[in-house]
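Q: Give me the 3D complex with zinc ion.
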Amino acid sequence: MKIDCKHVWQHISAYIDGDVDAVLRAEIDRHLETCEICSAVLDSTRNVVVLMADDRVFELPAGFSDRLHARLDHDLALNEGS
Amino acid sequence: MGMVSNPASEAECIRRILAGERHLFHELIRPCERPIYFLLSSLLRNDTEAEDAAQETVIKVFRNLHLFRGDSQFRTWVLSIARNEGLGRLRKNETRREDSLDALTDGEAGDFTPAILTSWREVPTETLERQELGSLLRKAIEALPEIYRNVVLLRDIEEMDVRETAAVLGISEGAVKVRLHRARALLQRDLAPKLKAFAPKRGKLFGWAR
Ligand SMILES: [Zn+2]
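A: Here is the predicted complex, encoded as structure tokens.
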């Protein structure tokens, strides 16, 4: 079975997550060896995924944690007597 | 996030808090702060309101701690509370964008043609200013329909597994995978051309491990 580019794109997310079976993975790998377009699509999709997981890219607002725990302290103190 | 909590010590911590050691709650909730905030910011699309809702969520978690049964992960339970807090605020907010209505349903065929850029293979992360990169990514994610945004947030930003993502959002694991696939395809299409523009003016390229 030969798979085409569209077929590869349909499985890119699962492929990145290692969530395709061995047969399909081998097919995709073989396609990627010769298809520059799909390799580029895979690489750029993977780059986007890697970037999203970078904690430095998505940072909490400055002081978020301090304000949260201060409010929590306040609430914990309020409920102390109850 | 790397912080993997130990369920046994978590249960012990909860037991002690309920027995009166309230100050321990600060440490219990700390690993959940990030996903709480980003989940709410994804729902509410407003930083100030997301922070306020995050604080409310944490206080609700504290007040309802005795209701936690331990049949799910603590973080999953906390994030369900955060999600309810966010949805409650959306319902109250009359000016909210009805974007979930324009989202494709899972059953609908959605063929997303990726951005085809054979010249962009690497992201020069080391030379990108984080804020600039972060703002590009955040904008792209904010532009996603809500059903995709929440999934990408939990799976790719907070790196939760498919099962927990499904539990927090109350959808099937299959739906998580389909939505994640579409979200990533939309992000690739949106971001690839923009990130490519960063490359030439920044000098040295850093490749990704394959
Ligand atoms: Zn191809």
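A quick observation: Chain A has a mean pLDDT of 90.
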